[in-house]
Amino acid sequence: MAIDLPPAVVDDWRRLDRRTDERTLSLATVTAETTIFEHRPTAEALERLRADGDIPARSLFTVALDISPSLSAIGLSPADALEMAAPKAREGFVETVEDDGIAVGEKRASEYIDRPDGSVGHLTVFEVAYPTDSGTATGAASADGGDDVEDAAIDAEAHVAVWPAADAYVLAGGLLPLETPDSDLLAAALDVDPARDREAIVDVFRGLELESGTDDEADSE
């Protein structure tokens, strides 16, 4: 079941995409329902930054994981298996981001985090090179007589956290830009503010509903 954003952040974000993926790991089938949210105030600027991507440079996401057979059926609890499950959950997130042409780099942080309700999850922060629609001419002649254009990217950051929930796991996190593009007008519209964006991700971590999702479409309008 899809998971929506908590009330603390929902007003500034809207649902952009929802997808379901299924994979087989050893003897279990894992179904991941991922919801991606875009930032309402800067949605137009994010579209201008990169028009053909599915995941904006400033975005939030939630993932509901369902495991079959259930962990309890094989004598495990999600909390007890968190250390084993977290790396696999992160790998799925990284694959989703990289499939959109976004380069995920080294880990910046990897740590356990507590929520106000006492739930303990695991957070990983990755370096990201986010591709943009602007390029830089190299001056070397290409096959058609024009200049070669190097792919342009801006530095960004990806946060992904995983918690045990009921008989499976919940993931949440987001991407945020760390620098502005070359265009002054686009830079102003994009309003890069890593501290504010990190706080929005923390608000998601604090307020996310871990036990059940909702299919309420109110935030997608």
Secondary structure blueprint with pairings:
Blueprint: H1 7-10, E1 13-25, E2 28-39, H2 43-49, E3 59-68, H3 82-99, E4 103-114, E5 120-141, E6 147-165, E7 168-177, H4 184-190, H5 194-207
Antiparallel strand pairs: 1-2, 2-3, 3-7, 4-5, 5-6, 6-7
Helix pairs in contact: 2-4
Describe it for me?
The chain has helices at residues 7-10, 43-49, 82-99, 184-190, 194-207; strands spanning 13-25, 28-39, 59-68, 103-114, 120-141, 147-165, 168-177. With 221 residues, the protein is an alpha+beta fold. A seven-stranded antiparallel beta sheet has the order 1-2-3-7-6-5-4, with helices on both faces.
Derived from helix and strand composition plus strand pairing, the structural class reads: alpha+beta
- Domain count, please report it: 1
β-strand number: 7
Largest sheet descriptor: 7 strands, antiparallel
- Could you state the order of secondary-structure elements as H and E? HEEHEHEEEEHH
Strand content: 35-45%
Q: Give Rg in angstroms.
A: 19 Å
Shape: globular
So how many helices? 5
Quick summary of this structure?
The longest helix has 18 residues, at 82-99. The chain has helices at 7-10, 43-49, 82-99, 184-190, 194-207, and strands spanning 13-25, 28-39, 59-68, 103-114, 120-141, 147-165, 168-177.
What are the defining features of this structure?
about 220 residues, alpha+beta, single chain, 7-stranded antiparallel β-sheet, disordered C terminus
